[in-house]
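MOLECULE: protein
FOLLOWS: sequence and fold
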Amino acid sequence: MKTNQQEQAIQYGFRPADSSIPLGFPLDSNHGVDINKPQTVLEVPDSEVTIAIQDLWSQVKKPVDVVVVMDTSGSMQGKKISTARERLVQFIGLLDDRDRIQVILFSTEIISLADLSPLSENREELQRQVPAVSEGGGTRLFDATLEAYKAIKAEGNTDHIRAIVVLSDGMDTDSSIQIEDLVNKIEATGEKSGTAIKIFTIAFGNDANKEILRQISEITGGRHYQSDPDSIYDIYAEIETFF
C-alpha cells in the first residue's frame, strides 16, 4: 500500500497496515491509545483464503426477499428513466441466485414485472424486461408502496432478510390513499423485531418529495437517500450491503 494513503488513514483514527509507519495524532496516549499494542498482529491472508471466505459467506448468509418499486410516471422521461432502468439491471446483477426479487412499476397504473421468485429462475427475464420499461402518466406512490408491502408480507420468507426499495422523482398525484393511510396500515401490521421488513426510499432528482419519502422509510426503520442519475448506482450498491 502507498505510504501517503497509510498516513492519511491515521488521520481518521485507523492504524496503518504497514507497521513501520509511526503512529501520530489522534492515535496517541492523549486519546487513550497504547501505541505499543497490539504486540501480536495476524498476517494478511493470501488471495486464495480471502476468496474462499467470500464464497463461504455467500453460501451461509441469509437470502434476501426484496421488492423494488420504481416510478415510471411522465416526469421520469429522458435521462432519468434511461438511467433508472440501467441501474436497476445492475442492482439485480448484485444479488445472489438464492435471493428473491419482485419489480413493481408505478405511474397511473401499477404493474408487476414478476412475482417474488428466486433470481436463479427470473434474473435473465427481468434483465430483459427492465430495459424495455417506458415512462408516462401520473404517480401512485402511496398505492404502489402499500401493494409492495402487502406482497412481501404475504409472500416473503420470515427466515430471509425482507426489504422494499422505493424510487420516485415526484409527488404522489393519483393514489387512492394518503400518506397517513399508508403509515397507519404499515404500522398496524408491522413487526418490531430484527426480522421486520425494511423500506429504503430514494428521492430521484430535485423535484422528488424528499420529506414524504423520508417519512415512508422511517415507518420501518429503513433509510432514505437523495439521488440523481449520476449517483443512483452507488446508492443501489450501498443498499445491497444491508443484505
In short: The domain at 62-241 is CATH 3.40.50.410 (Rossmann fold).
